[in-house]
Here is the input.
Amino acid sequence: MAVASDEGRVSTSRTETAQARRPVRLFRNLMSKIALTPMILTAVVVFFGGTIWTVVYSFTSSGLLPRMNWVGLDQYERLWSTAKWLVSIQNLALYGILSLVFTLVIGFVLAALLDRKIRFEDTFRTIFLYPFALSFIVTGLIWQWILNPDFGIQGIVRDMGWESFTFNPLNDPDIVMYGLLIAGLWQGTGLIMCIMLAGLRGIDEDIWKAARVDGIGTVKTYVRIIIPMMRPVFVTAVVLITSGIIKLYDLVVAQTSGGPGISSEVPAKYVMQAMFGGQNLGQGFAASTMMLLSVVIILVPWALLEFGGRKRG
Amino acid sequence: MANPATLSSTIAATDPVTSRLGEGPSGPRPRKALSPRNIMLYGTLIIVSLYYLLPLYVMLVTSLKDMAEIRMGNIFSPPTEITFEPWVKAWSEACTGVNCDGLSRGFWNSVRILIPSVIISMTIALISGYTLAKWKFKGSEVFFTMLLVGAFIPYQVMLYPIVIGLRETGGFLTDIWQATCNVFTAAEGACRGRVQLFGSISGLVIVHTIFGMPINVLLFRNYFAAIPDELFKAARVDGAGFWQILLRIILPMSLPIIVVSGIIQVTGIWNDFLFGVVYTRAEQYPMTVQLNNIVNSVQGIKEYNVNMAATLLTGLVPLTVYFFSGRLFVRGIAAGAVKG
Here is the structure.
């Protein structure tokens, strides 16, 4: 090493540098390519190769083992006529829409409150964000306990004398998704709050001054001026929340195990069940391809918007 | 609501220095602590805080009660008599199926998964980020874009191909190992060892390295890109090469980003459930998987205090990281999230 650096210092004359350039550049490219090999393999082989493999095998009748036995769209027809899958999709749609709306609203309101120059801002932020450090398994199990019909919220309210009070989401097929939603919001809103807060801090104070000069109220300034200005932050938040929603799995496993019955099944759980529980690989591949498709449908417009916007700018 | 004092104080929050300069000699205006605005503001924040804090509190008090008290009282009441027995039981006696050696096994499995995963994934991410920022070559950005796009693909799509990949690679490495081993030893049966990647901790380490790559490469790349090129060029002129610049110049400067990336990786890997279930066997299940099996097991009487102690134990590692890293944690997730 020391020798090499000495040589480098000596060879300051132009001719020598010019002569040395070609092999050095080759070496440089080679080394950087070697260094980047793990990343390239991950991107090309695992992410893209794996995805294509799964999509291709979703058109086969693979059962216990993947077999190249072409059956066209049979797996998809079966998928869309399976009650469990249809319930999963409905659940995810319900959970997804509510989760998106509530996370954005709560995240933004909390961020705006914290942005009002308050005391103990760090304390509040720490409190709102700590659930995000916990896993979905821990989250699910905590809320399973709090929503326990005998000892949890329902039990306490009944003990206080309101005997007919009923709030038992984890055992009621109609509202079980709301039970999951409460836990999911508890875990995830802190992150969005942080992102929104960063966005709010990035807004030029002159905007506030101008709004004040024009006599616009605080709430109105937020709704009419600040939120439109924070469009990129909101877009990022939406992308983050949606990609998280589609992956929803651990929380369901921990909190409800898909029950009661199949009333809180979600697509990711269907995939896992088909692939590793039911020896039904083809179904798993088809279902995961549908998950991929939903991501594409959501993310492609966003990507076009982002990159289109950058080109215009 | 829109009185000038309120607004100027809001502005001050965004940038204390310049706003103070702008306000001139008047300084921060003294305000009443109990204005209606403050009562509403802090009232809302405190009520919301309760929603976030209650689960932690409930978990803690439940884990310190005995079962008799849990059946009698409500989940919010503090324990009349504090007992640590549930904690001991959760750690060393709780059952998953036939195994009754508690959560300690899962904990040590998680540690054995966590340490190599964090080291390997961060090393690879650091080197990749450094290459992408300072040693670009034709196509390097294309691969990087592919990596980022791949981060949005649901894991379920890639799960099975990775199972096959690990199985095949394991078999391939076994063949190589046995062939080379046979060359050097003549003894019968000396080369029985097999390389197992699928269903082992080493396989899971690879998986964590793969899926931690997009966010961490992004973090390192952006951080290194902000280092002035002049510094880099000066080192080149002095004859330093790829590794020398990395070790002597870049690495000493990158402690903050290493900490941020470390926080992301430690909490992410510790909290993982999906990969643990898919890529390891029962004896090697990480803590989250074992926790879920303990709490959601259908056999026996439900011991809620033990369950909550086990849940707290599992959450303790990321919570510790979170409370000690403070602002860095926020910075990490904000950087990863906003730019990702």
Observations:
- The two ends of chain B are 37 Å apart (CA to CA).
- The domain at 84-339 of chain B is CATH 1.10.3720.10 (MetI-like fold).
